[in-house]
Design a protein that fits this description.
The protein is of the alpha/beta class. The chain contains 16 helices and twelve strands. It has a single domain (about 1-210, about 230-375), classed as Alpha-Beta Barrel (TIM Barrel). This is FMN hydroxy acid dehydrogenase domain-containing protein.
């Protein structure tokens, strides 16, 4: 927090009234100087994932940036996603052999090999960041050898998607699927996904109604809310899974109860997520839900693959989730922001996060990321803006 903001908070006698900083002040603006709005900073200045947020905000039209940045309601869930990680501190160890920790970054996701335990989450409208739209995301993921999950609403349709955004030979892509009351449409989408070469379906279940997103709504020409409410249940998931030979992952689990139900319905993987804080305000973050599952039903982490997304910006964020048993961590906004530079930006973002995971793990005394467990973190909250 900047000194003047800290002083103001102390003077008021309540940290609860503090201004929220979208990204930490670690010298980027001072380094760039008086950069003109609409100007893209040199990519060499991008040292953290937060830097890409600043670059996108400074460069993109406000309506485009707000499309990615907005959250639901008063955006508490958006802020909590970012801040929840710092409520838990590490137990740092010394004099351990950390020389091979970088070699432990590679992982498997649903049996597929990747170079790191993080992936690009599905996010729509890549064209709002870069003229080549999703191409930078796919190519960047291929270059970094990480998983890319394609949004159901890309800037191009599914068939041209595979043609206009060529992946490297053998690259694994998963395809997002939203709830749809029309079974005919669902069957068609599954068939198109299989034809496009998707290796898995990621079924998003936390968007059964329109999200209350005032930041986005300001840029709409008229207020025409979508009042449709979708009726889906676990029996629908069973039916959906029977319509395809592909594994069907469930994205949008945010309670231990639903995690246990997913296991009962033989879901191969779940994604702990609150939709980036975009659907409903006042819900828990990924690390809070992962901790709840660990405390109340730790067996879930052995019964199905558990992934998580929401608010991840640092290597330490990834490590804390891995410590709880999360197998893979998704990032959406950060990669969309990095895509303002196209493929080069996405590649740099991947390199930054890999670098941070390795050096942070080393400095914590972790020898092997695959051997990490909950004992590496103090799970009693430290009171950080809680």
């Amino acid at each position: 927090m900047r000194p003047q903001l800290l002083t103001a908070a102390l003077a008021s006698g309540a940290f609860a009234a503090r201004p929220f900083l979208n990204e930490p002040d670690i010298g980027l603006e001072e380094f760039l100087g008086d950069i003109e709005p609409g100007t893209l900073p040199n990519i060499s200045a991008m040292a953290t994932l937060h830097d890409f947020d600043f670059a996108a905000r400074n460069y993109l039209p406000q309506s485009n940036y707000s499309w990615f940045r907005h959250g639901a309601g008063g955006e508490w869930s958006y802020r909590n996603n970012l801040e929840a990680f710092q409520r838990y501190t590490f137990k740092q160890r010394a004099l351990t052999d950390i020389t091979k920790v970088r070699n432990s970054l590679p992982t498997t996701i649903l049996g597929h090999n990747f170079s790191a335990p993080f992936y690009i989450s599905p996010a729509a409208q890549g064209i709002r960041c870069h003229p080549e739209a999703e191409s930078g995301l796919v190519k960047g993921a291929a270059a970094g050898d990480i998983l890319y999950i394609a949004s159901l609403f890309p800037s191009h349709t599914l068939e041209p998607f595979s043609n206009h955004h060529p992946a490297a030979e053998g690259q694994i892509l998963f395809q997002q699927l939203y709830l749809d009351n029309n079974d005919t449409n669902t069957k068609a989408l599954l068939a198109r996904s299989e034809k496009a070469g998707a290796a898995a379906i990621v079924f998003t279940v936390d968007a059964v109604a329109d999200g209350n997103r005032p930041r986005r709504r300001r840029f709409e020409s008229s207020f025409n809310p979508d009042e449709e409410l979708s009726l889906f249940n676990w029996e629908y998931y069973d039916k959906l899974a029977s319509l395809t030979d592909l594994p069907v992952v469930v994205k949008g689990i945010n309670s231990v109860e639903d995690a246990k139900l997913a296991v009962e319905h033989k879901v191969p993987a779940i994604i702990i997520s609150n939709h980036g804080g975009r659907q409903v305000d006042g819900v828990s973050s990924a690390i809070e839900t992962a901790l709840e599952i660990h405390n109340e039903a730790p067996e879930v982490f052995k019964q199905t693959e558990v992934w998580a997304d929401g608010g991840v910006h640092y290597g330490t964020d990834v490590i804390k989730l891995l410590a709880l048993g999360v197998k893979a961590i998704g990032l959406g906004r950060s990669f969309m922001y990095s895509n303002v530079y196209g493929t080069e930006g996405v590649e740099r973002a991947i390199e930054i996060l890999k670098y941070e995971i390795a050096i942070d793990a080393a400095n914590l005394g972790i020898s092997d990321l695959k051997e990490i467990n909950p004992d590496w973190v103090r799970w009693n909250q430290n009171g950080w803006y809680s």
